## 1
Amino acid sequence: MRNAEMDAFVARVRDASDILNVVASYVPLKKKGRNYWGCCPFHSEKTPSFSVAPEKGFFYCFGCHAGGNVFKFISMIENISYFDAVRLQAEKLGIPMPDREKSEKDIEKERKINDLRRMMEMAQAFFHNCLVKTRYGVAGLQYFSGRGIGADVIEDVSLGFAPDAPGKLRDAFKKRGVKEQLLLEGGLIAERQNGVYDKFRNRVMIPIADDRGHVVGFGGRVMGDGQPKYLNSPETLLFNKRKLLFGLDRAKKSIREEGRAILVEGYMDAISLSAAGIKNVVASLGTAFTVEQCRLLLRNADEICFCYDSDEAGQRATMRALSIVRSTGARARVLIVPDGKD
């Protein structure tokens, strides 16, 4: 890719970006004179010293002296490189990256990722419609109601239900032209000796998104006493549990405003807390807390509150998580809920 092409691309993204809207999506601002003011997201303060000048396209903090253009702000608030900030903003604006020479392997991987993303969006709609528009979803609706999760949360999170049938999704997707191999690679179906079957059956379904809101996998809680109680998507090109936190895409803003993140074990815990008005909560998908997950949270706040189950397994998981947080220099707290277990 020629430098001139890249310069033109960066300039196009910059010109299309409204720094006020970008900053305001992270920081509460109030107009004072020609500029907008708020408490700096990059250091602790009670009196606003952080200023955004829309006409100039710059931000500046008179307390910690952080400042720059829209890309500098995104790179600092998201804890990513300057160029990654340009790419992130371009993606939000729908501005394509300039073409570069790609290997056949790169082209194939990019195509596969796009196909998987489209299929995951289809699966999200399929499970959601099964819950709210068919008789299959009655048990799921009863379960959510028992957890205090109403219709508004079901719509907001796009919760769903997987019918207790071996091939409902498989057959529906094949009719829509989705190849069996892609269903296997996305973890929506699995193989056995006499054929393939739906991976998720008789489960309430929770879509799992990355921190940009792209659905990358699913979690399912079984109805009744079946095992396993919780089932997640397998590892795929999109889904890596070590690098994901359930709910982070929706909780980021509240985490930044509160200055802390509350981490729970399971997605149902996170959904229930969010429904109760606690918005700065994410879940570690039932896995041990990882360094990668810690770094994701530290992009948004420097304090993490652990609220794992109070049983022996939950206490062990908390101790392991605290050792990871200490290695990063972040602040950590532990919230204890007596007999707190799903």
Note: The chain is about 45% helix and 20% strand.
## 2
Amino acid sequence: MTKKRDRFWEYVEDLKGRFKCNICQKEFAGGISRIKSHLSGKKGRDIEICLKVPDNVQVEACQAIGSPYKKAKNIAVSISGIGGGINSTSTTSMNDKDAVNKRFIKFILLNNISEDVIRSQAFIDFVKGVSQFGPNYELPNLVHQAKLVLDYDREILQYVRNAKESWVVTGCTLMVDIENGDEHSYVNVFSYCPKGVVFLKSSVTSRDGMTWIYLKDIVSSTIDEIGVDKVLQLIVDNDEGFELTAYMLLEYSQVYITRCAIHGIQSLLMDLFSKVDWFRRITMARKMILSYIHKRGINLSFQIQKHTKYKKFEHPCLARFASNFLLLHSILEFETELKDLQLLDASLD
């Protein structure tokens, strides 16, 4: 009678005298007893434990080796080389959200992290990734970081190649972004197609140097490099730039030129602000509210976040006037909570 194969083999790949864990992808010498010890999470059994083992598998493995299963109630996090004299090893309950929030605030203040970084999708994805991985996540060392950067660089290059290769089938839209400063003008050119957006080139000149000849050289050279048969549309986000490009596209009659819709909305809102009195007064009141909150310091800001369930105001962007209206909308959304804080604010004096 054939002996029944132990069920814990399903969690590993049998390498004939060795095994590879299907959960953490690490290889070890040995057989079924070492597999169970590896999956049990019990240290001191002459094998590295699996840091990614699901709770249900770990419970079964503990039972198989005759060891009680105890799920840790606290998480010990140690980050060596980070903190600059501050004790960076501590223990925090997994359910203590206030303690985690304090660490978050400490991280922001000690490293002078801007709000834009915290609100970026990349940072949000990183925090979610760490949360999903669990308490055993460790930051990569410098050597591993360098490798990851190179890997990411290759991914970006492949993304760009895929987008450019697709132009043969779908064509592309050129987007010209023009920013006029007090002394200089900046021109950035991007391409868009169903495969994604690609940054193509950037140029800077003096404010007086932004002429139709200068802009023509940039856009014409870009169209020629891509191939005139692959450029379907040109979008310009600047009224002055739109007028300039209208002259030069006579030789590219098949390219459709249009204004940027977002720039049009931006211009409309700026006109409303300058010409409609009540509109301007509401916008200025918004600035007073935000200024008041910032001047009251972190105590009031924390209380506002607490009352709004840690949702944050949309912050205005200096380069985009329309962002003022996003902030107005968020203030209106929290109108009741802000009114409730009036008495609380008085108690802070």
Note: The radius of gyration is 29 Å.
